[in-house]
Design goal:
The protein has one domain: Serine Threonine Protein Phosphatase 5, Tetratricopeptide repeat, CATH 1.25.40. Helix 1 (about 1-45) packs antiparallel against helix 2 (about 50-65). It is about 90% helix and about 0% strand. By secondary structure, the chain is mostly helical.
Length: about 130
């Protein structure tokens, strides 16, 4: 009986450590996403479009890994802004439309409207 209790306690301790490990990894990814988004925005403002696009794409991938749809939508929207700044209207339109759909799915209506308006602005300039 004591062996079963000890084994159960060890299992619970191990499960707790695994939970803690994954929770810490999640927090680290969330911090990394925030840093990448900030770095991307700053690069976009300074005209470093390639760096900005890279930061946003990596932020999107990290967000995808942890099912963070809000940051996925933000990253896609900012890739659209980057394409727009580079006069790549076709890709900008695509990314704004995708961001709008994603914002709609997560019920972020202000984000959806912002992306929708950006897409319409591109359409009207074509």
């Amino acid at each position: 009986m004591d062996v079963i209790l000890i084994a159960g306690a060890m299992f619970l301790a191990y499960a707790g450590l695994i939970f803690l490990y994954y929770r810490l990894r999640l927090k680290e990814k969330e911090k990394r996403i925030s840093k990448l988004m900030l770095e991307g925005v700053m690069s976009l403002r300074r005209g470093g479009y390639n760096k900005a696009a890279t930061c946003f794409k990596i932020a999107y991938e990290y967000s995808q890994e942890i099912d963070d749809y809000q940051n996925m939508a933000e990253a896609i929207y900012h890739v659209g802004l980057t394409c727009e700044k580079q006069e790549d209207k076709d890709n900008a339109l695509y990314f704004f439309q995708e961001a709008s759909k994603m914002y709609e799915q997560i019920e972020d209506y202000s984000g959806r409207d912002r992306a929708f308006e950006a897409a319409n602005s591109i359409k009207n300039s074509l």
